[in-house]
Structure of Flagellar basal-body rod protein FlgG:
Amino acid sequence: MLRGFYTAASGIIAQQRRQEALSNNMANANTPGYKSDQGVMRAFPELLMQRVEAKSIPPGRGLHVPVNQKIGSLNTGAYLQETIPDFAQGDIRETGVGTDMALINGNLPDEMGSLYFTVQSDDGEARYTRNGNFTVDGQGYLVTQEGAYVLDESGDPIAVDGMEFQVSTDGTVSLAGGDIPLGISYIANSQSLVKEGNTTFRLDEGEALDARQVAGVDFSVQQNHLERSNVDAGKTMTEMMNTYRNFEMNQRVLKAYDQSMDKAVNEIGRLR
């Protein structure tokens, strides 16, 4: 019976964590470039229950042979193993703001690959994002809304000196002092990325390549546009309701076990 407590409790914890991931998706449904997290549920290892008994030999010499009789398997609960971002491209919408940019995937040589703007984190390392909701800081550099520098293909911050500049479809920023190509990175396996915050990723393993130098990579950059999040609000709401019902079901199972234990301790085991 105590094992049932642990099984129901593990289900409650798993559904709670899944609900948290879904709630975060819903909260970022309007965040540009946000990639929804998909929860992966797994079961703990199953136990094979066996009954150990002794079987007498027919001649009746008092000999007994130990025999294991299979009863069946026992599931020991479930848990949320991990959350994996869905890197599918979101819809493109027009904003009319010159510092907004949408990176549109064309033909890619690998179905697991994707393209990203390259930005600089606080520690000076390269980070990757699909969120092109940029702005210009007080020093005239193109930055993200969090203040991270947007990098060019050489890995240097881009100084635009003002809000008036043009970006061509091949990702080139046209300025009075010359043209600067945006740092567009191609990552062959998006699953090697680790999410930092809501729209920024770091590369856990492998390498990021300059998209212009990889054969078969086709992309375009649209100024005055943004990529919307790929969260399906209706589907996410349905999943949240199902997760809540599963959470309540595990609660009822836990309450039933608690009532059974109460009877066992306070009624069956009572001395009269």
Observations:
- Residues 88-227 form one domain.
- The longest strand covers residues 64-74.
